[in-house]
Write a structure and sequence with these properties.
With about 80 residues, the protein is mainly α. It has one domain. The chain is about 40% helix and about 5% strand. It has helices spanning about 10, 25-35, 40-55, 60, and strands at about 15, 20-25. It has a two-stranded antiparallel sheet with strand order 1-2. A hairpin with a 5-residue loop joins strand 1 (about 15) and strand 2 (about 20-25).
């Protein structure tokens, strides 16, 4: 019998850190969760983090924040002087 295998969309964007902990990137996760932008997801996560803190839970156990910074530079092609 041929069984169909199903891969979770969360599994396809899952990452693993050097300690073997799973994590997801907001810019990949927001689409799967139906948010309009990664920023909208981040706002919701921040509210959840505050609720966790207010209920005296260990925020650092439940939420791990890592900010990646990307440097983008643009190079212009030199223009030739005519004359």
């Amino acid at each position: 019998m041929n069984q169909l295998t199903h891969t979770s969309p969360f599994e396809t964007i899952r990452h693993e850190d050097e300690r073997g902990r799973d994590y997801w990137r907001a810019h990949e996760l927001y689409k799967i969760l139906g948010y309009s932008s990664a920023r909208a997801l981040q706002d919701t996560v921040e509210k959840a983090r505050i609720a966790c803190e207010d209920s005296k839970e260990d925020v650092f156990y439940h939420f791990y924040l890592q900010i990646d910074v990307f440097m983008i530079s643009s190079f212009r092609k030199p223009h030739r002087k005519r004359g």
